[in-house]
Amino acid sequence: MKTIIRVIQKDTMEAVTAEAAEIWKRGGLVAFPTETVYGLGGNGLDPEASKKIYAAKGRPSDNPLILHIADRKQAEGLASDISEAGRLLMERFWPGPLTLIFPKAKNIPLETTGGLETVAIRMPSHPVAQALLRKAGLPIAAPSANLSGRPSPTLARDVKEDMDGRIDMIVDGGEVGIGVESTIVDVTGEVPTILRPGYITEEMLRDVVGRVAVDPAVAGSVGAEVKPKAPGMKYRHYAPKAPMVLVEGSCDAVAEALNRVLEKAERDGKKIGILASEENAGQYRGGVVKVVGSHKNLDCVAHNLYRVLREFDREEVEMIYSECFGGQAFGQAVMNRLKKAAGQHVIRAEEAAENEM
Ligand code: AMP
Ligand code: MG
């Protein structure tokens, strides 16, 4: 299949949205920018289109898709029940980077929901996403537009790298803003529950609905006893090709420990990537050092994270060591993605030198 790539700007908006809507209506796939990451969209009411999405991504078919809508009212036809908490959160955060889980309406195929009786819905705020969704007039099922397991795409170039020849069209709307996927909140139960952290933080949600719970899988400890409620959270995700390790400790301790690792790697002729902060980058002697942002500005870290992971892939590093970032508020989402990229592999600075390469 030949993948059409269209740059979307003011003067091409009408033609490109019409072309994309046409592809969706006949069951094809179009990747497009949202404020979080690029999505890979297909008609969410068409089971065949959903199957094509799973095939294009190589995504396990038990990992449900998020429906994207242009208008709050559309949610009423897609959810069989909208709880009070759901309504309040929609009113406050839509359009925006918040996905809500509702009981699904009958017309949504199980192929779209990965066999679940619930459905994930989001109304993106990105002007290109909004224009495309309005033109299509359909709920568009759209997971992130990466091959399953790879870092989510934040640029059309990333989408092309993974999806060229596998989908009908890529709409290039430039670099996305936030850079990590939406916050997912289950509003089907008594207490709204965060299934995946994102730009909309626990505190922001609590301001609107009072009590909020966090699914234990968010902290990263997915094992036999912790089964995540968002099926996608159980897979190693967002991951670069090289193994990655997060290194905890003070800036100086991390730099000192990694410099010892770098010395050894140089002796062994190994290419090491260091995912560094602005504050610490100057301390590393050797390796492929990439600055992802400042410890004081996690918005910037999130914005750059997936692009930097993909750059390490292009440079073919054999192992990546990363500093730890955040933990609180939006930092919860940043750490969650970093830990997933590292397959939950976190070590103390003192252990870095002994870490198997
Ligand atoms: P992606 O679109 O690639 O960001 O992935 C969508 C995420 O939403 C995955 O982690 C899914 O497991 C999660 N998700 C989608 N639908 C549901 C649902 N009905 N219940 C729980 N999680 C869901
Ligand atoms: Mg994804």
Helix content: 25-40%
Question: DSSP strand (E) fraction?
Answer: 15-25%
Number of strands: 16
Please count the helical segments. 10
Give a concise summary.
By secondary structure, this protein is α/β, with parallel strands linked by helices. It has helices at residues 13-25, 47-57, 74-78, 84-93, 127-136, 156-163, 202-209, 251-268, 298-314, 330-341, and strands at 4-7, 30-33, 38-43, 66-68, 98-103, 118-122, 140-141, 169-172, 183-186, 193-196, 213-214, 244-248, 272-277, 288-293, 319-323, 346-348.
Question: What brief labels describe this structure?
Answer:
357 residues; alpha/beta; 11-stranded mixed β-sheet; 5-stranded parallel β-sheet; 16 strands; 31% helix; globular; binds adenosine monophosphate; binds magnesium ion
Description:
The chain is α/β, with parallel strands linked by helices. Helix content is 31%, strand content 19%. It has helices at residues 13-25, 47-57, 74-78, 84-93, 127-136, 156-163, 202-209, 251-268, 298-314, 330-341, and strands at residues 4-7, 30-33, 38-43, 66-68, 98-103, 118-122, 140-141, 169-172, 183-186, 193-196, 213-214, 244-248, 272-277, 288-293, 319-323, 346-348. The strands form 2 sheets. An 11-stranded mixed β-sheet has the order 1-8-2-3-7-4-6-5-9-10-11, sandwiched between helices. A 5-stranded parallel β-sheet has the order 14-13-15-12-16, sandwiched between helices. Helix 9 (298-314) packs parallel to helix 10. The mean pLDDT is 94. The structure holds adenosine monophosphate and magnesium ion. Adenosine monophosphate is lined by residues 63-64, 66, 101, 113, 116, 118-120, 143-144, 181, 184, 195-196, 229-233. Adenosine monophosphate (AMP) is lined by residues 63-64, 66, 101, 113, 116, 118-120, 143-144, 181, 184, 195-196, 229-233.
